[in-house]
Task: structure prediction
Amino acid sequence: MNICIGSKNPTKVDAVKDIFPEANLIALEVPSNVPNQPFSDEETRRGAINRALHSRESHSDAIGIGLEGGVMYVGKQLYLCNWGALVDVSGHIYTASGARVVLPIEIDNELKTGKELGDIMDEYARRQDVRKNEGAIGIFTNDLISRKEMFTHVVKMLKGQMEYGKVNIKNSSN
Ligand SMILES: O=P(O)(O)OP(=O)(O)OP(=O)(O)OC[C@H]1O[C@@H](n2cnc3c(O)ncnc32)[C@H](O)[C@@H]1O
Ligand SMILES: [Mg+2]
Result:
């Protein structure tokens, strides 16, 4: 089985490796066609779908997987959100979202200045490359859940849905 994953971020690539250990994995940087910092479930999910579709453009025999991080409001409270999409060899699209965690008001204020969450997290946590390691979810869960672990759960849901086979998005503009 060939799988193209639309990112070189190790938290995303390693999550796919864990759930598809037998697959031949190709990691590619592809456009998400949404802002670098998605600001809603809608934008984040769309970014994941676009990454999945773009990643198999030159590999029609492969499954495409896109994983996208973003933020979203519930009322006035900002949360971290993550979405995944898997496109099978027939073009069926499966989607799933990851666990959410509250982001503090300081992060919300910094995001409003136009910075990306990844850069804000490094300053906030005084660590380097949080986005490629524990992630914001790791910081705000006191390292109980890592970004890779959260994506592993998303990829597991995508795999299970593909195997079940009956519930997918047929039109990529949905
Ligand atoms: O190379 P790619 O795949 O783009 O990986 P990325 O780390 O930039 O991740 P996303 O584009 O999916 O996430 C959009 C933005 O939100 C940031 N982000 C999302 N989730 C994060 C997390 O858990 N920890 C730190 N930054 C996160 C990320 O660094 C980007 O600035
Ligand atoms: Mg990015």
Q: What stands out?
A: Strands lie at 2-5, 24-27, 62-74, 77-87, 93-97, 101-102. The chain has a mean pLDDT of 95. The longest strand covers residues 62-74. Residues 157 and 163 are 10 Å apart (CA to CA).
